[in-house]
Specification:
- This protein is of the alpha+beta class.
- The chain contains six helices and eight strands.
- Helix 3 runs antiparallel to helix 5.
């Protein structure tokens, strides 16, 4: 896993998706979306991260990007987050290095990072390597799956059905 700056996240998006995106502009690139209420229970959050990383057919054959876009919004444990990132060899603050470029060998680390973002109600977007899916979590109380095609969204959402998440509806930005 390579931990990168905001500028490097933007460069990754331009190089892999052809443009820089933000949470506000996800719908432009990914027109199909399903949104769920953010689970409140830690066990369900852990199951959600596990399901997204291991069972939703996330394309990790090519490098993907996990970008933390906002933190410090709710109660959080920065010592826990910083300690985990130090175990990955990263000493910079999330402000200086909010991005995580991942590959096939990084799924365990990616799952842990997604766990922490979900636990802390941080805003983050996970762009799969193939660029067909973007999964985002928000301090606004939702998680959303964005897809370039409707069939891919249905496949991803069907995997999440096992968690009995409460649908929120279409995300409107």
């Amino acid at each position: 896993m390579k931990i990168v700056s905001q500028q490097e996240c933007e460069e990754w998006l331009r190089g892999n998706l052809g443009k820089t995106l933000s949470v506000e502009t996800l719908d432009e690139e990914y027109p199909h979306c399903v949104t769920y209420w953010h689970p409140a229970e830690a066990l369900k959050l852990t199951a959600l991260a596990n399901m997204v990383i291991h069972y939703c057919s996330l394309d990790i054959r090519q490098p993907g990007l996990f970008w933390i876009t906002a933190w410090g919004i709710a109660m959080e444990n920065m010592a826990l987050f910083d300690g985990y990132r130090k175990s990955l060899g990263e000493n910079r603050h999330v402000f200086d290095s909010p991005g995580h470029v991942f590959g096939e060998s990084d799924v365990q680390q990616l799952e842990c990072l997604l766990d922490l973002a979900l636990y802390f109600y941080w805003d983050a977007v996970l762009f799969e390597g193939g660029g067909r899916i973007a999964f985002n979590c928000s301090h606004g109380g939702f998680v959303a799956v964005h897809a370039k095609d409707e069939e891919r969204l249905k496949q991803f959402a069907q995997s999440l059905d096992r968690l009995s998440l409460k649908p929120w509806g279409k995300l409107t930005v």
